[in-house]
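The records we work with from here on pair a chain with its fold. Each token is a code from a learned vocabulary of local backbone shapes. A record is reproduced here so that you can trace the correspondence yourselves:

_____
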Amino acid sequence: MLTHIAMPDSSKPLPKEIAEYKLEESVGYLISRAKSAIDNVVNQHTMAELGITSTQAKILFMLATGKCAAAVDLAREYGIDASAVTRLIDRLEKRGLLYRIRSVEDRRVVMLELTGEGYALAARMPPMFQSVLGTMLTGFTDDETDAMRVMLRKMLCNAGAKI
């Protein structure tokens, strides 16, 4: 059964708040676009070279570095739904890249541990990440890159994020 989808009426004038907003000048919009561009290029590399998505690669890397140790940490770090993290973990476990360890203190807590193959894939990621960022930062001076890093950390601190 086909349903009719109403198209926006382009003849109606936009509300003033929308018409006057300069989206292409919004720092938030630009950061979001830059992050999407980085994610897309990293995803192309991880799929071609590792056979996993960039999100799966990031999960493996966060576990390998010890920054995250449980599904709840990953969900918090990436701001994604716990059920989505569970599905990602299920896929990685099925591929033999990680396994779950139930806490003896609290059975509700499930820790994650990489397998040897999971660590091997994680070890291949830093050069991939550096290559992508190197391309994205072409034309930036070291001082500009350092300044950007400082500014992004300040933003994260202002948002209450732990760095």
User: Anything to note?
Assistant: The first helix runs from residue 16 to 19. The mean pLDDT is 91. The beta strands are 98-102, 110-114. The helical segments are 16-19, 27-50, 54-65, 71-78, 82-94, 116-123, 125-136, 142-158.
